[in-house]
Amino acid sequence: MPKPVTEEEVDRFLQNKLNMQLATIDGEGYPMIQPVWFIYDKNANKIFTGTQKTTRKVQSIRKNPDKVYFSIDDENFPYKGVKGRASAAISEDVQKNLQVIEKINLKYLGTLEHPLAKTLLDNARNGVEVVIELTPKYFSAWDFGKAM
Question: Which of 7, 47, 48, 124 could form a disulfide with 101 if both were Cys (CB 3.0 to 4.6 A apart)?
């Protein structure tokens, strides 16, 4: 078994460009899993992602804000990842959301000039794009590179 993962290692891992798998409960009580881009704010101990406010994941979070799970894992050896349970809130604060969406775009696209970044930022300015704010309640981490 791998050695325990430290909090510093988790913080560093959460800066990666992997997708986060976000799991919510749909209207019929079934799990719904969707890949999303994210940023982690260590100081706030929160994970943020953006999406259009009419998506099913937003609807599911509004109905069950305390039944959210997430997983971020690297499929390449040595396997490592972080997963856990969180409570979620939806932000419709345009100014706050713009800052978060900018950071996400810079992380994944490296620029705000990319056509997708421009579209997502325009959507945030127009209130179409909202931010999901996850507050982890529990998480676990693994790193099989530490077993060697």
Answer: 124
CATH number of 7-90+131-147: 2.30.110.10
Counting beta carbons within 10 angstroms of the beta carbon of residue 133, is it exposed (0 to 12), middle (13 to 18) or buried (19 or more)? Answer: buried
Pairing mode of beta strands 46-52, 39-41: antiparallel
pLDDT in tens, 61-113: 999 999 999 999 999 888 999 999 999 999 999 999 999 999 999 999 999 99
pLDDT digits (tens, 9 = 90+) for 8-25: 999 999 999 999 999 999
Contacts of 81-84 with CB under 8 Å at 24 or more apart are: 81/13, 81/141, 81/142, 82/10, 82/13, 82/14, 82/139, 82/140, 82/141, 83/139, 83/140, 83/141, 84/136, 84/137, 84/138, 84/139, 84/140
